[in-house]
Write a structure and sequence with these properties.
Length: 491
Amino acid sequence: MNLISNESLQPFDFILFGGTGDLSIRKLIPSLYFRHCEQQLPEDGRIIGVGRTDYDSDGFRNMLNESVREHIEEADFDEGSWQAFLQRVHYCAVDVSDVGSYKPLIEILAGREEEVRVFYLSVAPSLFTAITNGVHEAGLITEKSRVTLEKPLGRDQESAEAINNSLSAVFKEEQIYRIDHYLGKETVQNLLALRFGNALFEPLWRSERISDVQITIAESLGVEGRGGFYDQTGALRDMVQNHLLQLLVIIAMEPPVSIDPDAVRDEKIKVLRALKPLRGIDAVENSVRGQYKAGAYGDGPVPGYLEGEDVPDDSNTETFVALRAEIGSWRWEGVPFFLRTGKRMESKTTEIVINFRKVPHSIFDTADGMSTPNQLIIRLQPEESIRMRIYVKAWGDDIQLQPVYLNLDFNDVFQKRKMIAYERLLLDVIRGNPTLFMRRDEVAAAWAWIDPIRQAWEQFQYPAKGYTAGTWGPSAANALISRDGLRWNED
Ligand code: NAP
C-alpha cells in the first residue's frame, strides 16, 4: 500500500501565515527543513513567512536561526543544510485583517501563477475568513492554489459551517486541506497497513472477537499560559472532536476499495455517521468531565487549572474527558469504544488498545488468571510501536500460561529519525494528495456527534470533577469503564 507517493514535487510557494508563531517555529519549519535535508523539496520551492512583525526576509531568517534550532535534535541538525534551507525562506509583513496590506505578498508572488501555491493558515481560527477573503481580493488564488487550515475548525457545527462556507466561497473543496496532524503519524498510517495489508486481522476485526477498544491521549503538560483560549474550548472540543474521533475512525472503518482520497474518506465518514448519538441524560451517563487540581510530578509541584493565567476562578471547563461510545453497525454492534484525554495526566501517552475476547473455556492455569485477554496496543507516544499481547507457557515444568508481548518498535526496526507528523502532511499538500486530510462532511459529522454531548452537559449542569495533577484523571472515569467489567489499560 502506498499511502505517500514518492513522486517529486513541482516548484511551489508555501505561504505560511503565522510564520512567526509557536507552531511554525516548533513544528512546521523543522518539518520543511527535514524534507529539504531528504532532498524532497525541488530547488524552486519557496517558503514565505507571513505575520505582522516587521521583519525583512533576513530578519525573519535570523529569528528562525535563533528559535528553531532548539526544536531540532542536535544529531539531526546539519549547519550546511540549514543554511541552504534558509535560502528558500522569505518573509512578508502583512496584517491580514487589513486588505490594503497584502502588497508585499502580491509582489513576491507575481509571475509565479503557474507554480503550486499553498496558503497555510497557522493562525487563530478567527483570522481564517479574513485571510481567505484577503488572498481572494488580492487576486492571489490560482488554479494550482491550496489552502491548509489548522484546528480548531470552529467551536460547534454552526461555526464550522460558517468557516467552511467562507472557504468554499473562494476555494473549491479539492483545494481545501483541513489538517489533523495525528493522521501524519507513522503509526496511524501503519494501522491502515496492518489492517488492510494483512489478511490476518480482518476476520478478528469485529464484535465476535473484540471486546472493547480504548483510545487514550494523555498529556502531562497543563494549559501552559493558554488559559484564556483553553477556557473557552475545553478538552471535548480541543481533542475529542478531531484527534480522538480520527483515531476511532481509522480503527473502525471498513476496508476502502482503494487508497484514493475519496475512497478512504467515504469509509471514514460512514463511521462518524454510525456513531450512536449521545444526547440528554445518555450523554451524561456515558461521559466524565474532569479538571486538574494542584499536584506533583517528579520534578516538583504544579498548580491546578484554576490557578492558571486568564482562567476564571469559578471555571467549570473540562481539562479531561472520558466517553463511552458505540458504533451502530454489523461489525461493531455491542463493542464499547472508550475515549479518554486529559491534561496533567500521569504521563504523556497516546495509545489505542484493542482488547480481544477471552478464550471461551480455559484448560490452563495462568499466572494472572488470564484476567487480561489478548491485546493489540498501538502506541503513538512517547514512542511509536505496535505490541501484541499473547499467552505462552511459562518456563518450567508446569504448564502454566503467562503473557508476553510481540513487539514492533518502529525506531528499532527502521533505525530512522522519528519523523514529525507534519512532515508528510505538508508534502501531501504541496503534492495535492488529500487522503489524510478531513473533508468538509467529515468535520460536520464529527461536530454533529459532539455538539449534543456539550449541550447535555450544559442542560444538566454536569460538573467537571477534580483530579490531582499527575494522575490518570477522576475516579469517575474508572467507574465509567468498570460498568462494562473492564479497566483502563495503564500498564
Ligand atoms: P501563535 O504562536 O499565537 O501565533 C499566531 C500567529 O498569527 C503569529 O505568527 C502572528 O504573527 C500571526 N498573526 C496574528 N494576528 C495576525 C494578523 N492580524 N495578521 C497577520 N498575522 C497575524 O499561535 P500558534 O500556537 O502558532 O497556533 C497557530 C494555529 O495553530 C492556531 O489555530 C492553533 O490553534 C493551531 N495549533 C497550534 C498548535 C501548537 O502546538 N502551537 C497545535 C495545534 C494547532 P505576528 O505576531 O507576527 O503578527
